[in-house]
Amino acid sequence: MTFDKNFEIKKIDDEGIVWHNVKLTDVVKLYGLNWLEENKDFNRLPKSKKDYLEPVCPNVVRLANCTAGVQAHFKTNAKRIYIDVEIASKDNLSGMTPIARAGFDLYVGKTFEDLKFFGSSAYVPTETAYRHKFVNYYEEDVLCVLNFPLYTGVNNLWIGVEEDKYIIPHETFKDKQRVICYGTSITQGGCASRPGLSYTNLLSRMMQVEWLNYGFSGNAFGEEELIEVLSKIKNSSLFIIDYEANAGTNGKLKLTLRNILEVIRKNNPSIKILVISRIPYLFDEIVKDMGDVRKDLRKFQEDLINELREKGDNNLYFMDGSKIFGDNYHEFTVDTVHPNDLGFMKFSEAVYKKINLIMKSGE
After folding, report:
1. How far apart are CA 126 and CA 106, in angstroms?
2. Residue 362's pLDDT band (boundaries 50, 70, 90)?
3. pTM score of the predicted model
């Protein structure tokens, strides 16, 4: 059977290619890894806190190995950009494409504002090591943004260019305040079709700032110990909390939200905090009891934010996630729960609008 040749997975050898180990080289600038210098790898949480966090949230520690939201930025004049990858897992996930789970996608442009999607890595999903070639069509040197996999760890990554070409790091977000985002499988990127379409990566491009993705699939329960670690991250202007989908129905949201807000404020007195309630699910409409639970949880979150604002904390904000998708909300998901690409784009646009209100006018 013959298919479009663009779907073929081609063998790549080393002839004429200079390879750079991303863990060791300084030719790329990595974003989305607050503890990179300490860890010396692509883990999203500090390894020095593993013994502190593991007894409380062992699955979070495990999921921190997934590279959701991590980006490599560099400039190059190469016409062929190669990656050589070793990933941690070949497990398949329902609703996730292999590219989103364990692949990379590349954006290229003359500037960050000009970035265009250039392609995703092709590989055999049953393998844990692969190579891929991206083609650069620009004549002059360009900025490249390589988005890491959403639902697996990356053990090693090499970037290769032709031996007569150069690759240099690009500090895209120099001196800009970062966004910390804590949440669920949706925050981690489920179920975008490729890494660049997760909402933290979309918003990073929209806002032109670094987003630190702390989405932990099925395990966002608001542990104070975890928030204690995250709230001490420096050079951040906004902390987003989006964990109702995991912590709502088991009662943990009502038990933890006030406490984690207090922890964030203790460690970060001036940071703005945005709490986002859960997006609508189909069974909220069909099963009345579930719909009533969600209304109560939204009211709880909004009332708490209003209470704390009335007490003088004017850097707290609430966003009603149930209103983002409108009447056709079910069309924006892959499984009536997790957003598809249209859903992530619509979600990102709404959050972007809200953040602009917060940052520019304070509402």
Report:
1. 22
2. low
3. 0.94
| Both structure tokens of 10 | 């081609």
Sheet holding 129-135, edge to edge: 17-21, 154-162, 80-87, 129-135
Burial grade of 349 (CB within 10 A; 0-12, 13-18, 19 or more): middle
User: Is 79 a member of any domain?
Assistant: yes
Confirm if 329 and 279 have CB atoms less than 8 A apart: yes
Count other Cβ atoms within 10 Å, centred on residue 298.
19
Give the SS3 label for residue 256.
helix
Based on the fold, state whether residues 131 and 49 are members of the same structural domain: yes
Q: Are 76 and 109 in contact (CB under 8 A)?
A: no
* pLDDT tens per residue across span 234-282: 999 999 999 999 999 899 999 999 999 999 999 999 999 999 999 999 8
Q: What total number of domains does the chain contain?
A: 2
Write the CB contacts of 85 (distance below 8 Å, at least 6 apart in sequence): 104, 121, 123, 129, 130, 131, 132, 154, 156, 157, 158
The full DSSP string for 17-47 is EEEEETTT-SSSEEES-TTHHHHSSS-SS-G
Query: For the domain that residue 272 is a member of, what is the CATH number?
Result: 3.40.50.1110
Max Cα separation, the chain?
69
The 8-class DSSP code of residue 316 comes to E
Q: Report in angstroms the alpha-carbon separations of 58 from 154, 162, 216, 219, 316.
A: 19, 43, 11, 9, 29
